[in-house]
Amino acid sequence: MENRYNFKKCRVKKTANHPHLLANKFSILTKNVGAFIFIVQEGKFVYVNPAFEVITGYSAQELYQKHLWEIIEEDNRELVKQRVISREKGENVPVNYEFKLLNKKGEVRWIDYSSTVITYIGKPAILGSGIDITTSKNMEEMLHLEQEKLAYLEIHDTLTHLYNWNYFRKQLENTDKINENNSAIIVCDLDGLKLANDTLGYSAGDTLLRDVAKILRSSCPPRAIIARTNGSEFATLIRDIRQEKLRTIIENIYKQVSFYNKKNNTLSLSLSIGFAYKQNPNQSLTEVMQEANQLMYREKLLHKQSSRSGLVDIMMKALEVRDYITEGHTDRLQEIVEKIAKAINMPENRMNDLSLLALFHDIGKVGIADSILFKPDKLSDAEMEEMKKHSNIGYHIAKSTSELAHIADWILKHHEKWDGSGYPLGLKGEEIPIECRILTIADAYDAMSNDRPYRKAMTQEEIIEEFKNCSGKQFDPELLKVFFDKYLLI
User: Fold this and answer.
1) How far apart are CA 253 and CA 288, in angstroms?
2) PAS domain location, by residue (predicted)?
3) Is 8 exposed, middle or buried (0-12, 13-18, 19+ CB in 10 A)?
4) Rounded Cα–Cα distance for residues 288 and 276 (Å)
5) Is 292 left (phi over 0), alpha (psi -120 to 50) or beta?
6) CA 196 – CA 205 distance, rounded (Å)
7) For residue 23, what pLDDT is reported?
């Protein structure tokens, strides 16, 4: 080992009249060497060189009050103590080894240590020497951890910490080699992941994926091999399982999904599940997995629309929980738009759709950060651009479900203005759907007539004056006249 000072067994004769001269000479010899050197008698330090003072942080005088094992790290303390005692007795114990000591600051230092028996000032003693190898040990530990990390990442999915597809595929092959019957495969697909990513952001989608992983772990036996095999897909291999137990596992997964949705106000889980059981020794597990996938895709088609509708419902619920949709807001909007629609003889089916628009026009705000939605002050330009995204987000949400797809275009355009200064398309005049023009008036009236975080409600006179100022700019002038006549009664 580099820089290690190995002292062969030696005997230092006592000078009867001047024993301190011998100690001084020893000190001079070892003072400037690079390695640490110490001498212990009966376990206590009787000599240390400056290098050992540097390593330990203790002065020589402080060390002379201590036993060697007092500065040894707890895990190594008893081992070092027994070896020192045995060595002084002349017993055959290892003379070269590594241990950890604690310096004065409580920091761990790794030591590469050698010892030999000597006679010092007429008494048996242990001469210890060595070097501080903490840096190299730390590098070894870092390398080991990095290797462990790489080995982990090679077979695991980083998001869910389940196994990945490569590992799962190898397990299928290994299980096929032993030709084990009574194995089962469960495959699951997280419905609506793309919609969640597009509307709520990738952090919401990641949360859903992690929560699916938790449900699968808690529902399946510990020996199950669970993997995330694709973006939204999961697979589980369970060896040696009875069919009745397999059905119980499937039921538990569904129950946990249901429980998750009942307690969760902001996210909704929907899983399409397929499973298959190997009973034929000639059937490979790849074929079993194909069978499970076919059943899963069949189920996905059956409840594709209902899962998306459920996601829309949970998004509206999320807005309510976040207190963005204030109490009575949508009811008041529906009342106003209905009166305007009746006044212009809008067909009943269009009125029903207009009522839906009043209810869902701001659903896209579920994808906007609370810090922007609830900011009491005026939004910055950057924040306003972020807020404007809710029209597009709402459009994509509505397009994903049959119940709202027919009003998706209105949701996209509900912030357009009569003079073309609105967003996101800059439409003007009658290019804007009449339903959006009606909603614009109703929404503005409700906003002005109710308190906001940054202002009190406006008076009726102030509201009328504001409408008149914005007629032909923000609002359709003809519809505004109808609103004045049929709702404000002026």
Assistant:
1) 20
2) 42-84
3) exposed
4) 6
5) alpha
6) 6
7) 54
Q: Which helix (H) or strand (E) holds 32?
A: none
Give the integer Cα–Cα distance in Å for 348 and 336.
15
For residue 299, give both structure tokens. Answer: 């189920």
Helix (H, G, I), strand (E, B) or coil at 185: strand
- Residue tagged 């100022």 (tokens): 469
| CATH number among 3.10.560.10, 3.40.1160.10, 3.30.70.1670, 1.10.3210.10, domain 323-486 | 1.10.3210.10
- Sorted by sequence, the CB contacts under 8 Å of residue 449 that are 6+ apart come out as 457, 458, 460, 463
DSSP structure string for 312-369: HHHHHHHHHHTT-S-TTHHHHHHHHHHHHHHHTT--HHHHHHHHHHHHHTTGGGGGS-
Ordered by start, the domain boundaries in the chain are: 10-138, 156-302, 323-486
Topology adopted by domain 10-138: Beta-Lactamase (3.30.450)
- Residue appearing with tokens 């190299």: 136
Q: Tell me what percent of the residues of the chain surpass a pLDDT of 90.
A: 57
DSSP state string for 140-176: HHHHHHHHHHHHHHHHB-TTT-SB-HHHHHHHHHHHH
> Amino acid identity of 231?
G
156-302 sits in which CATH class? alpha beta
Cα maximum dimension of the chain = 126
Which of 5-9, 235-239, 299-303, 433-437 has the least mean pLDDT?
5-9
Buried b (16+ CB within 10 A) or exposed e, 273-298: bbbbbbeeeebebeebbebbbeebee
3-state class of 190 per DSSP? strand
Domains 10-138 and 156-302 equal at CATH topology level: no
Please write the tens of the pLDDT for every residue from 168-222.
999 999 998 887 778 999 999 998 888 788 777 788 899 999 999 999 999 999 9
Whether pTM > 0.70 for this model: the answer is no
